Amino acid sequence: MKQVIDFKRLPDRFRSFAARVIPVLILLHTYIGWQLLPVMPLPSYSMPLGIILLASSCFLTPLGLFARFVVVDEDLADRTSLVGYIAMGLFSSLLSLTALRNLLLLFVSDTSTQSTSALMVVAITLFVSLIGFVNARKIARVKHVTIRLDNLPAALHGFRIVQLSDIHVGSTIKSAYVKAIVERVNLLTPDQIAITGDIVDGSVARLGIHTAHLGQLQSRHGTYLVTGNHEYYSGAEEWITEFNRLGIKCLINEHAVINHEGARLLVAGVTDFTAHQFIPAHRSDPEQAIANSPSGLVSILLAHQPRSAAAAEKAGFHLQLSGHTHGGQFWPWNLFVPMQQPFVAGLNRLGKMWVYTSRGTGYWGPPKRFGAQSEITLITLVGKLGS
């Protein structure tokens, strides 16, 4: 009989993670059931049915993360991951709304509100998850952003950069999705393309066929890429080799100078903020990225995480392009991003430097985006007024 699941394939780091997280998941699912099921105004069989659904969610939620390791057949692993990630998204919203409901009930004395509010929690969870699924699975919109750099040479006025970030090719984002992104980007005829990390969730052997379309990206001055934290979960050195093979220039704490219409633009890139935890030689270093560069040039840094910005501004960069946050992807995670990152999304100023943080071109984990639309960002550089 063919083996379907092999838990021995689960990496050690996930074993210890599972040992810590699964008991917490059991407690949180128990909390949801305890708060909602007894007051649900439904037929008598709703209680055992609710318990079964919550128990299933408790089992399925971790599978989104673990299926690609423990399910032997690759296609089955991908389908299992999709089910697991959908369960993760439902559980996340159900937990958040249950906690919010309980907070609001502290200020309501009418006991009949308990039943109505319990039903509303379930209804809102299903609604948000459905809309979020549709938002996540459609190809990212083109978002137009204009950034004014006072020292920009006249020849670079109108220079157009397409930024892609956080595509997360993996168990639920495949070749067709990537191809559609590439086709949309090429229609924009940019001067340069910048990819700010988290392109993949898996090995080159497993996903190389799906990322191959990235080699078809077209722009006047080529495509530049920096690593994100998920590249380091997925074999960063192999992926750097693969991206370079596709004709994408990986900037590993280094820079390139672009000659455009007689003017020059410096484009630099750093490894992910946490890269040194995986490969010590890849410690993120904006100072190294700009070292020995020509003086007086407008300088742009590609850095996966916005928290590289403090070091980038100190190093003298004029603009940083980042991703990582997904704009929170869906409520309430957008509320927690500021605990780790200085910026959640959009254009912000830090000292003398602009920072643009993309909401991401794909999604991670649950196929769910609500209140944070994915984006293909078309950035137009302009000089000072009147130039």
Q: Count all strands and give the number.
A: 12
What is the CATH homologous superfamily assignment of the largest domain? Metallo-dependent phosphatases
Strand order in the largest sheet: 1-12-2-3-4-5
Please state the CA-atom Rg, rounded to the nearest Å: 23 Å
How many domains would you count in the coordinates?
2
Tell me what the structure shows.
- This is Calcineurin-like phosphoesterase domain-containing protein.
- By secondary structure, the chain is an alpha/beta fold.
- It has two domains: 7-137, no CATH class; 141-382, Metallo-dependent phosphatases (Purple Acid Phosphatase, chain A, domain 2, 4-Layer Sandwich).
- It has helices at 12-36, 46-60, 63-70, 74-105, 112-137, 175-186, 204-211, 229-233, 236-245, 286-290, 309-315; strands at 141-148, 159-164, 192-196, 223-226, 249-250, 254-260, 263-269, 298-302, 319-322, 346-350, 353-357, 375-382.
- A six-stranded mixed beta sheet has the order 1-12-2-3-4-5, covered by helices on one side. It has a six-stranded mixed beta sheet with strand order 6-7-8-9-11-10.
- Strand 3, helix 7 and strand 4 (223-226) form a beta-alpha-beta unit.
- Helix 1 packs antiparallel against helix 2 (46-60), helix 1 (12-36) crosses helix 4 and helix 3 runs antiparallel to helix 4.
Quick rundown:
The protein is of the alpha/beta class and 387 residues long. The protein has 11 helices and 12 strands. The chain starts with 11 loop residues before the first helix and ends in a 5-residue tail after the last strand.
